[in-house]
Amino acid sequence: MKTLFALFLSMLTLNAFAAISASNAKLVCHTPRLDKAFVVGATQVTFLDETLPAPERQLASIDGIRTKISGNGFTKIVNFEGQRHTIHVANVASPSQVEDYLVIRSREGHELTYPLDCSAVN
């Protein structure tokens, strides 16, 4: 019984560490097919203007986001420019254009899905 309890406790601890690493990850992402780039942090998303040089790239920073942690990845939902942006990264440790995506939904309900190219920021 003690062994079973210890195993359960260690699995619970490992899941907590996985959730913490996914929630604290900071990534810079852009869409190859669209001129959208953004930095995804633990508590905010910063949209960038790719036409400006690096120090002046910040377009808007949004703090009111919803985050769902799932395994080693996350899904963040943010409203920007009257549209709902859903950012999904399946695995923070190894981002993939196949599994990571951005869904932009207009007020009329039209949805467009774009692949994301993400990399970690130090």
Can you put this structure into words, describing what you see?
Strands 4-3-2-1-10 form a five-stranded antiparallel β-sheet, with no helix packed on it. It has one domain. The N and C termini lie far apart (44 Å). By secondary structure, the protein is α+β, with helices and mostly antiparallel strands. The model is unreliable at 12-20 (pLDDT under 50). It has one helix at residues 2-23, and strands at 27-30, 37-40, 45-48, 58-62, 66-70, 73-80, 83-89, 101-105, 111-115, 117-120.
The strand count comes to 10
Q: What is the structural class? A: alpha+beta
How many separate helices?
A: 1
Radius of gyration: 17 Å
Instruction: Provide the number of structural domains.
Output: 1
Summarize the structure.
The protein is of the alpha+beta class and 122 residues long. The protein contains one helix and ten strands.
How is the secondary structure organized here?
Elements: H1 2-23, E1 27-30, E2 37-40, E3 45-48, E4 58-62, E5 66-70, E6 73-80, E7 83-89, E8 101-105, E9 111-115, E10 117-120
Antiparallel strand pairs: 1-2, 1-10, 2-3, 3-4, 5-6, 6-7, 7-8, 8-9
Primary descriptors:
alpha+beta; single chain; 122 residues; five-stranded antiparallel β-sheet
